[in-house]
Design a protein that fits this description.
The protein has helices at about 1-15, 30-40, 200; strands at about 40-55, 70-85, 85-100, 110-125, 130-140, 165-180, 185-195, 220-235, 240-250, 255, 260-265, 270-280, 285-295, 305-310, 315, 330-345. By secondary structure, it is mainly beta. It has one domain (about 1-345). The strands form three sheets. The protein has a twelve-stranded antiparallel barrel. A two-stranded antiparallel sheet has the order 10-11. A two-stranded antiparallel ribbon has the order 14-15.
Length: about 350
């Protein structure tokens, strides 16, 4: 499976041979080398907020369709950057949330997106050309509200996740290479990761949930962490950003149920992969379209094409993309109103 995931990533990695990835948040002007030479000290901060949606109504429509529907999505990308001589401190916050309302579902909202992702990096230059930094990284991931498997008939009574369930915290000392303002690679050989989840979710399955064992509320991992970021303005109206994270857990081992039976095999070779890509087209100052693709492979989050109903019977899910297996995928196209917070320096 991991080979298939890496194969899907090849077109993304080939966008630029010399590129892997930082966002608008990490655009520091003037260049780092110039800043270090002047030994100046300042903050920069800014961000982008995008709100989009679509609405539709049908009546006596020959082709059929949803009688009434409404979808709304919000995206926020914010940053702060502090530079003081050879030191740089970068903070990125990515927030996504989306809801879909339909007449056939009595306008009960269903999530289409839910994400909290915060990264903080503090580095000190260790090369005169301002390309290599000794860096410490902290990352936090979670979600805003409860998540459900809408393929289940009684999904409203069986949430599968919630705020801080799961929550992932990563602490990683390492080294970062920065080429210009649009490309960075970070590597840590001793990255610690803590997964947190309410144990009511880990009791739903003999193998636990989100990598946390059955009946427990946390899991500690120690391994190697790689993170690459790239941002480019293809033209005045088109921009592309991408991120690739890889994590190998040195402590990975087979997961056993309360009876001691192996329910999921695991080892350090099962690398966790995150590929996050976003292309934005700006029509004018405030209107834009974005195309996003996020792919995740995590051996701790298996996929099953069946579920157990209230009668204890195994039933097939109504899932059109089950051939993707354990690969997690989220793809979306959004038209919306965009407000870009001005880049400020003080």
């Amino acid at each position: 499976m991991i080979k298939n995931v890496l194969f899907l990533l090849l077109p993304i990695l080939a966008v630029k041979v010399d590129a892997q990835i930082i966002s608008d948040a990490e655009k520091v002007k003037p260049t780092l080398a110039a800043i270090i030479e002047k030994d100046t000290m300042y903050w920069t901060y800014g961000g982008v907020f995008n709100l989009g949606g679509n609405q539709g109504i049908l009546h006596n429509w020959a082709a059929g369709g949803e009688l009434a529907s409404f979808t709304v999505n919000g995206i926020f990308n914010g940053f702060t950057t502090y530079v003081s001589g050879p030191n740089i401190w970068i903070n990125n916050l990515d927030l996504n949330y989306g809801l879909n309302y339909t007449y056939s579902n009595k306008f009960i909202p269903r999530k289409t997106d839910d994400r909290i992702d915060f990264t903080s990096k503090y580095g000190r230059m260790i090369s005169k050309n301002a390309k290599f930094f000794a860096t410490g990284l902290f990352n936090f991931k979670s979600q805003f509200t409860k998540g459900y498997d809408y393929a289940l008939p009684d999904w409203q009574n069986n949430p599968t996740s919630d705020f801080l369930s799961p929550a992932y915290l990563t602490f990683a000392p390492g080294f970062e290479y920065r080429e210009g303002n649009n490309f960075s690679i970070f590597f840590s050989p001793i990255a610690a990761r803590l997964s947190l989840v309410d144990n009511k979710y880990t009791k739903l399955s003999p193998q636990g949930a989100f990598g946390v064992p059955f009946g427990q509320s946390s899991r500690f991992e120690l391994g190697a962490y790689f993170s690459a970021r790239y941002f480019t303005e293809i033209s005045k109206v088109v921009s592309f950003r991408s991120r690739l994270d890889l994590y190998s857990n040195y402590l990975a081992q087979d997961v056993k149920d309360p009876k001691g039976l192996v329910v999921r095999k695991d080892n350090p070779g099962n690398i966790t992969v995150l590929s996050d890509n976003l292309m934005t087209f700006k029509f004018n100052k405030h209107f834009s379209m974005s195309v996003g693709l996020v792919m995740i492979y995590d051996n701790a989050i298996p996929y099953s094409s069946t579920y157990i109903n209230s009668s204890g019977q195994k039933v097939d899910k109504d899932e059109p993309f089950e051939e993707l297996g354990w690969l997690q995928l989220r793809q979306n196209i959004q038209f919306g109103v965009e407000y870009k917070l001005p880049l400020k320096k003080k």
